[in-house]
Amino acid sequence: MVFIYTLLIILGFIPFLIILYKMNKVKHMKRNGVKTMGTIRELSGSSLKGLNSVVIEYPIKGSSEVVQKHVSVAGMPYRAGDQLPLYYDRNDPDKMLFDSGKSFIVLLVFTLLLAAFFIAACVMIHQSVAAGEM
Prior knowledge:
Elements (H helix, E strand, L loop, with lengths): L1 H31 L1 E11 L6 E9 L6 E9 L8 E6 L7 E3 L5 H27 L4
Antiparallel strand pairs: 1-2, 1-4, 2-3, 4-5
């Protein structure tokens, strides 16, 4: 039974660990990357709830090169011509991340609550089993 509790708690913390990984990736890119403004050039798809594709174009600082990249986005929050802040890797300009601001705070709190729910569920199951109710 301890194995099942451990597995449930680990499953509860996986989304939290994914968010921490993504936060670290963004922090690293903000520290070592180059900030620039990208322009939305094309939009593919019109689903408000699903994944859509946009083509974003951004200049490489210190050169005349411009990178065009296809990026998947949730919903369709953009229009052609929109300017977006982003970071790209100096060594590989094709690697880029949108400047997410502080959007991870809500996800971090949500995933911690999810992990707490899994822990509470394990405690309640254990108490029910110990009391002979299950």
